[in-house]
## 1
Amino acid sequence: DTVLWWLRRDLRLEDNPALRLALNGDRRVVPVFILDPTLMARPAEKRQAFLFAGLRALDADLRDRGSRLVVREGPPVEVLAHLSAESGASAVYAEEDISPYARRRDAQAAAALTLRLVTGATVFPAGQVRKADGSPYTVFTPYSKAWKALPFPGAPQPAPARLPAVPDALTSLPIPTTPAPADFPAGEAEANRRLGAFLDERIAAYADTRDRMDLEGTSALSPYLRFGMLSARKAAWAALESARLAPHPQARRGAETWLNELIWREFYHAILYAFPFVMQTAFNPGLRGVPWRNAPAELEAWQQGRTGYPVVDAAMRQLAATGWMHNRARMIVASFLTKDLLINWQAGERWFMRNLVDGDPAANNGGWQWAAGTGTDAAPYFRIFNPSLQSAKFDPQGVYIRRWLPELARASLAGLHDPNHLTPGERRAANYPPPIVDHAAARERALRLYRPT
Ligand code: FAD
């Protein structure tokens, strides 16, 4: 019997439930990745480059085990039907993906073929962690309590040592050779190396260092989790084990805090699954009428890192240079766009999706709606970050700002944190713009206009 293993965002052999299920009963498994024109047309150069490099790494891992990746291009349902006929496959196995586009695509595939979907992008199925009455949680803390109260679904499963050969007759397109973004070599081996280094060196201090933009306190695993080069269950298992074996309370707190972040990821998956409309509009109906400003020049200044607020600009330059941004920085720039500039969070959401290597519909939408105050929190619309205070607190020596805004390397620390303290001379020498808004006035404006109905 032959079956297809349709990979989408689970580019790994270890702890891969779709692969295990496909292999069940000694079947011949054909691993297939489809270049879907609809997805490939979305502008996301760095993420695509990371994906292609991940496919090359996966193909190499498959070949080490006697298999190989079959890459095809076209509308997925057509490609699968064609490949099933070509290979004599009786079924298609895949990891469930809960984005609205993925659900439509998979419903079409299920109507045309025998499609078996299995949970793997998150520890628990997106619809499983629910209130006693079966309704979805809309607030993180009770969700995370319920998540932790469920029995953990066991230790991660090792990669199969050997895989069945793929018949020579099944042709494969070449995988584009665009190199992965420099800071994110792709593939499962690299994901595991990073996880190991994080567990050995940084998780113990994570609770204290995670918010510091100047330190490498976080795991930088998000792109790997995004494409399933690292199993979410393996990451969560590692966090639980780290907490259990922690040598001191601070280390345990570090591991528990990291687990909490992984649960945020699951929470936003659950939100998108239960409320797919968040891709179109505010989660909170009372905040659908905010009079967003149409301010293309200010939006562009934000995108290019030319707002005149060094912490905002440093973060936007980090994004442009690397395809990644520190979580604290994401919150700062998102608050700045939506509160200080009063520009619709959806413009920020789009810019992030275009530029992030880890760009993920659920996490990105959740992060933007959280920052805009239109999301799942109770009533945080009046939370407006003060960029200068954020900067002083989470980049106390200005190391992060100087790194990403080298033109300000010689400015005073006070000026790095608060643009009002940059002297005209410093600004001129650096060709650095004056602030595009005054934070205090912008804050008043946001509080006036950002009223829930
Ligand atoms: P760590 O601190 O090591 O956390 C471990 C993992 O937990 C991360 O890799 C990530 O998978 C998950 N995680 C951590 N924080 C969050 C969170 N708040 N929400 C959801 N998952 C989380 N994350 C994405 O993966 N993709 C996105 O497109 C994305 N967009 C965001 C947009 C905004 C406006 C904000 C405020 C946050 C966004 N995040 C997004 C969440 C978070 O910023 C990143 O996951 C994190 O910075 C990745 O760095 P790390 O791997 O070192 O995280």
Note: Residues 249-274 form the longest helix (26 residues).
## 2
Amino acid sequence: MLNFEFHNPTHIIFGKDTLKELSKQVPQDAKVLILYGGGSVKRFGTLDQVKTYLEGRQIFEFGGIEPNPQYDTLMKAVEIVKQEKINFLLAVGGGSVMDGTKFVSIASTYEGENKEELFSYGTVPAEVAPCLPIGTVVTLPATGSEMNNGGVITSRLGKLAIFSPKAFPVFSILDPELTYTLPETQVANGIVDTFIHTVEQYVTLPSEARFQDRTAEGILQTLIEIGKTTIDNPTDYDARANLVWCATMALNGLIGAGVPQDWTTHSIGHEITALYGIDHAKTLAILQPSIWNVRREQKQAKLLQYAERVWGISEGEIDTRIDQAIKRTRDFFESLGIATHLSDYGITEEGINDIVDALERHGMTQLSETGEVTLEVSRKILEGAM
Ligand code: NZQ
Ligand code: ZN
């Protein structure tokens, strides 16, 4: 097992009727900015409930954070924070709202004039931006943003990740019932995003991290068990609760501690979203089968472990077992209603050049757990994903 540090300070409040806990978690004297997306939380009544539980505090609102949150939009929230001397941020929504709120938290406490400079840090040190405290109310289980310190923001520079040791939410409320109103395709996205977060930290190189491996396999098996059920029966509480908790646990640092991590799928996927606006999870479903096909030798040991422990494939030649595991994975994504080829989304061979150019511009030239996914390998992966 590799050396690691693990620190996760987020207080999780999980279950039915937990929204009311807001009244205890947000300080009485807080000046709160509630941030939300395009209006689903208004339509389904969540925002009204949130405001009821925050009674007594000074409340401001900022709506309109778009899926794949935009820098220019978030900078308007930063202005409100400064003008109104806000001292607590409450994100009510999915990954985009939570990520956007983290950026607002970081940018509001960064003294530099040009907040775009923050992207050059990758991980922004606490002395550069001490961050405002954040709480979250999760309405879409997918990104794990509710229990990690990262966010992905789109600006003129591209769709870029930003981290800060201070950007962990102080608390996150996870009431699975708040997610019942999600359209089917967003639930499918959540399942696939969680699946890929898990394999980015698991289908890498063997490192004798048995607990991490078995926890990753547990998340994958749970997703396979409940995926279709929670799409077809959105109000099946237990199925949805399992999805919500898997999404959080897949990207809160637990399964990634002490193991090599890949993140090729996400790095190429972010470029595809930035260029073509395809949902984050859908880009991952397109890329993952091709990545495993192209890198089957480097990942052989973990692919065989995945085939056996997750799909029960233990007989036959090595390549046949790997082929079967890739096929079962693709079939699983497709069974959730997610198409897995670039051509299904109207991307042509020419589009591949644009994606490779964007990777080059962003320095994504040595991806994966070994750094050997060069631009040439990325091109092969994209060609295999047509
Ligand atoms: O904007 P509203 O009107 O709220 O509608 C949203 C949005 O259109 C809707 N929605 C959310 N909750 C709902 C609901 N509709 C009905 N009922 C509800 N309860 O769903 C749509 C998508 O929301 P979004 O937040 O964009 O989705 P998701 O949670 O999948 O987040 C995607 C973003 O997170 C980033 C992605 O790159 C992308 O920008 N990621 C963040 C990560 C992190 N912070 O660790 C890791 C991930 O790998 C990912 O990159
Ligand atoms: Zn993701």
Note: The first strand starts at residue 11 and ends at 14.
